[in-house]
Amino acid sequence: MSRVFNHRRILAGGIVAASLLSIAACTEGSDVAPPATGMVNQTLASVIGGSRDMRGLSGALSSTGLAMVLDGPGSYTLLAPDSEAFAELDDMAEALAADERAPLLAATLRNHMLPGHLTPDTIRDAITATGGPVEIRTLGSGTMTFDTDGKELEVTGPDGTTTTLTGNAIEASNGVLLQLDGMAMSVGDAPSAS
């Protein structure tokens, strides 16, 4: 009985913390630019698919079946390399999708997907509230660690690869796309999903 009570307290505390972080993200001093007109009415998959700068990412998501997830009602945060970084990965992603290594590409992409609607402000607020780095479990089997370095928001992947958030968050009807200056983990090191 005590164990059930503790789980309920933990769940209630988590809900309160998430609510406070969501409220904090709506402050006037937000440094996240508002999304482009109409983007909030589109799903993450539609936003990515409609961007010529994200063709490689769109193709990788489609070939692995993950575009359907990002087109659904669930709320997700996708950590994606910016167009410059993804251009370098385009050929590799195409090669992985074209052969038996497609599951490795899918595992890598799942490890760049987080549950929920996370903006840079909510992540910064969580870092401030905990007094240090914040770990968030991915939809794969990894954990992403967020921390600040001055004004920069850094993401460290499961294999220790560190990247930096670039540009503004792109908000969609079912989540947020956060662009990185590179992959948050090496494709060769992608843990398989359990």
What is the CATH class? Mainly Beta
Count of helical regions: 7
Q: Name the helicity range.
A: 40-55%
Radius of gyration from CA coordinates? 17 Å
Computed structural class: alpha+beta
> Which stretches are poorly predicted, pLDDT < 50 over at least 5 residues?
1-38, 190-194
**Number of separate structural domains:** 1
Q: What string gives the helices and strands in order?
A: HHHHEHHEHEEEEE
What is the CATH homologous superfamily assignment? FAS1 domain
In percent terms, what proportion of residues is strand? 15-25%
CATH architecture descriptor: Roll
Tell me the strand order in the biggest sheet. 2-1-7-6-5-4-3
- What is the number of strand segments? 7
Textual characterization of the structure:
There is one protein chain. The chain is α+β, with helices and mostly antiparallel strands and 194 residues long. It has a single domain (2-189), classed as FAS1 domain (Roll). 41% of the residues lie in helices and 22% in strands. A 7-stranded mixed beta sheet has the order 2-1-7-6-5-4-3. The model is unreliable at 1-38 and 190-194 (pLDDT under 50).
